[in-house]
């Protein structure tokens, strides 16, 4: 009889934090920016696949992938090789001034996932999500010669001045930083679990559209609005999937008023939801798309993609010294190889996108079963490996305190996780997560919730 190998488990060799971790945490607290958050004491030393080992030799299962970034896991050999090869050729010349084949082919490859018949798209490369968002807003204003931007409550678009103005998730990002960008309004996001505007899960999409139309009649002339920016699935706001009719209705509203539609795919994009872009679950086409995080397995690069008919800003009007860095572009190519299935990852089926669908569906169904045992799990939602777990009080209010306790207790059992929204734990692991490793993480969650009861 053959016995199957036992799935790998976290290995905790010291009490947490271990001595080296504690020492670095202390130096970190003394010398680094006071703005950095430290949800629990973890200092990475090295990683392999979905496993990260801290400086004390404790190995943990990664269920958050550096905030939905490490798409191919840690130190994926295909990505490492691509980076090594490029770095020995050249690391920088400056894409703003000279073309480089590696970014030309990356742009060609990225637009192939977006272009519909008869459409042409172009790409601007930056270094971070916020930069892609800034570029999107600048382009929208420049193209339409209108100034107003509409964003959503609960959204996160980054921390530079334009992006932070658009962000609508937490006031701490804005307090004391004003004045922010003028001419930005926020409207509710249709969260089916907590519908805004007195609506229900079924009616909240239309309620938000009516609300915007109401603004156009009273306080905000529609012909002064350049763009509406929205996360097709909201990330930092709580891993929220909107009702199926929301984005098509928003598209129709934009078309009726000559407004551009920007989809911020920085967190949900690049295969995480099981499709290349999360908006592709909704049969709707935007005018501008921003991507970053998952694009290059942790190498810093972002992109703002726009229809050719919209990307009309003149030569020299926008650029970036490092944007589209060739080493990061090589990592993006390697990441796309694995996402598309041009290169297969062992145990992950046809492609990492297919794996995200398969393992994501498995995790969602297991979590829904867990909900019956643990009523504190008020909502389980998501698509692919973009999954949110909302903690609630017995009377259904968001329970941020319990969420924080659960997050820490999971970490102490060797499961790296991260909060978002008011009371949500996000599950955003590398897309190479297997069902076996997912089961290990789910068992840790179960044990944690039993212990907290
Ligand atoms: C949807 C979205 N947009 C933009 C950003 C900003 O990205 P960055 O931190 O790389 O600037 C984030 C970061 O979390 C995000 O989730």
UniProtKB/TrEMBL annotation:
Q: Which Gene Ontology molecular-function terms are recorded? A: 4-aminobutyrate:2-oxoglutarate transaminase activity; identical protein binding; pyridoxal phosphate binding
Determine the domain of life of the protein's source: Bacteria
What is the enzyme's main class?
transferase
Q: Which Gene3D superfamilies match?
A: Aspartate Aminotransferase, domain 1, Type I PLP-dependent aspartate aminotransferase-like (Major domain)
Q: Does the keyword Transferase apply?
A: yes
InterPro entries xref list: Aminotrans_3, Aminotrans_3_PPA_site, Class-III_PLP-dep_AT, PyrdxlP-dep_Trfase, PyrdxlP-dep_Trfase_major, PyrdxlP-dep_Trfase_small
Its protein name is 4-aminobutyrate aminotransferase
User: Which coenzyme or cofactor does it need?
Assistant: pyridoxal 5'-phosphate
Query: Keywords for this entry?
Result: Aminotransferase, Pyridoxal phosphate, Transferase
Query: What are its E.C. numbers?
Result: 2.6.1.19
Pfam families the record matches:
Aminotran_3
Record bears the keyword Transcription regulation? no
User: What's this protein's family per the entry?
Assistant: Belongs to the class-III pyridoxal-phosphate-dependent aminotransferase family.
What gene is this protein translated from?
argD
């Amino acid at each position: 009889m053959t016995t199957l190998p036992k799935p790998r488990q976290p290995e905790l060799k010291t009490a947490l934090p271990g001595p080296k971790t504690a020492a670095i945490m202390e130096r970190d607290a003394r010398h680094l920016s006071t703005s950095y958050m430290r949800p629990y004491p973890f200092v990475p030393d090295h990683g392999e696949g979905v496993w990260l080992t801290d400086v004390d030799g404790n190995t943990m299962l990664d269920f958050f992938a550096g905030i939905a970034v490490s798409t191919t896991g840690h130190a994926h050999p295909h990505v490492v090789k691509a980076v090594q090869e490029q770095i020995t050729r050249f690391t920088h010349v400056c894409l703003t001034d000279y073309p480089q084949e590696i970014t030309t082919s990356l742009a060609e490859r990225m637009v192939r996932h977006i272009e519909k018949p008869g459409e042409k798209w172009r790409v601007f490369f930056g270094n971070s999500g916020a930069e892609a968002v800034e570029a999107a807003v600048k382009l929208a204003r420049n193209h339409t010669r209108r100034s107003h931007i509409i964003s959503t409550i609960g959204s996160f678009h980054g921390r530079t001045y334009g992006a932070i103005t658009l962000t609508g998730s937490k006031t701490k990002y804005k307090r004391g930083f004003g004045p922010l960008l003028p001419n930005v309004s926020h409207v509710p996001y249709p969260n089916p679990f907590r519908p805004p505007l007195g609506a229900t899960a079924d009616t909240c999409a239309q309620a938000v559209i009516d609300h915007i139309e109401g603004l156009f009649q009273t306080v905000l002339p529609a012909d002064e609005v350049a763009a509406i920016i929205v996360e097709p699935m909201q990330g930092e706001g709580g891993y929220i999937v909107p009702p199926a009719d929301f984005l098509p209705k928003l598209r129709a509203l934009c078309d009726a008023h000559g407004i551009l539609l920007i989809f911020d795919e920085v967190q949900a994009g690049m295969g995480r939801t099981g499709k290349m872009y999360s908006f592709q679950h909704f049969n709707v086409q935007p005018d501008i798309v921003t991507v970053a995080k998952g694009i290059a397995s942790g190498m810093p690069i972002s992109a703002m993609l726009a229809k050719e008919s919209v990307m009309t800003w003149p030569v020299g009007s926008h650029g970036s010294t490092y944007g589209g860095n060739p080493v990061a572009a090589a990592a993006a190519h390697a990441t796309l190889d694995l996402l598309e299935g041009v290169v297969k990852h062992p145990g992950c089926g046809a492609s990492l996108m297919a794996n995200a669908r398969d393992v994501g569906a498995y995790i969602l169904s297991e979590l829904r079963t867990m909900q019956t045992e643990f009523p504190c799990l008020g909502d389980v939602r998501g698509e692919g490996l973009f999954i949110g777990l909302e903690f609630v009080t017995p009377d259904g209010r968001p329970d941020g305190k319990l969420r924080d306790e659960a997050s820490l207790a999971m970490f102490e059992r060797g499961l790296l996780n991260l909060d978002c929204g008011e009371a949500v734990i996000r599950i955003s692991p590398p897309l190479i997560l297997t069902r076996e490793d997912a089961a290990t993480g789910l068992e840790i969650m179960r044990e944690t919730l039993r212990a907290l009861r």
